[in-house]
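Support request, please re-run this one:
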Amino acid sequence: MSSAKDEPAFTRRKPIPRLPSKYPRRREVAVRGVVLGGDNPVTIQSMTNTNTTDVAATVAQIQRLVNLGCEMVRVAVPDQQSAHALPAIKQAIGIPLIADIHFSPELALAAINAGVDKIRLNPGNINTPARVAPIAKELAQRGIPVRIGVNAGSIAHDLKELYRQDPVKAIVESAHRYIDILASFNVNDIVVALKSSDVATTVECYRRFAGESDLPLHIGITEAGLGLCGAARSAVGIGLLLAEGLGDTIRVSLSGDPGDEVIVCREILASLGIREAPRLIACPTCARAEFDVVQLASEIQETVMTLKAPISVAVMGCIV
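Re-run finished. Output below.
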């Protein structure tokens, strides 16, 4: 039986080189052996939706995500009980563990002490030098990387008026401010995300920031939504940026099964020729169909995604 410590099948093959970019080459940041930036391949990540305090359920979900091709995973840390669960989760998995922190510097410190491989901070709710200082000192001392996760919905209060006038400028400025605070404490292993639920705004944020900084980029569309609509928004936004050579790690944010996030990430990368992957092809169905194509394709999709060769599996409903 495979375990969460198994290498994802999707990463066993040598990745296709990154697409060329007019932007500066990204600085390298290592996250527990996974290197972001430089000429390294774009990394797939997802986030669990289990209760983090339920170690068994969280590890089981991570194992499934790994089998589908997830290469880094993030868990929410909303309380001290969740922070206490982090060492057991990390010990059971073989990919980098990222702690998602909001509002509380104390929870950030607890996650760092628990040995996570990276933390995510939101400049909208841990946003003053005094609140960032104790976190930054520990990050610098231990050499733990951090992602600055700027979301359009949580811009610092003094930037809200600017956001109404120029949302892109406000989001990018929020990132630069936080970078400066962290840099003042000698924290340099920084990854940046600049997300909005609006695709055009998100794309322009990354373009503008990429022209001003060489920090590696975590790209995605925040709060993309349900199923097909969320996948479509994410594919457009992430695909546009990847086609321009931007993006060092990606997450498709969907409401629902995080396994679907990984599958959509893989399809985006494979569609652009950045990574190889097995493909499930199914006909759109019509009156000629001799069986339930959708049911069969749905039943085998996850199995196909775990194959270790870039083959195509077709489910066709008729002889046409």
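The radius of gyration is 20 Å. The chain has two domains: 9-276, 278-320.
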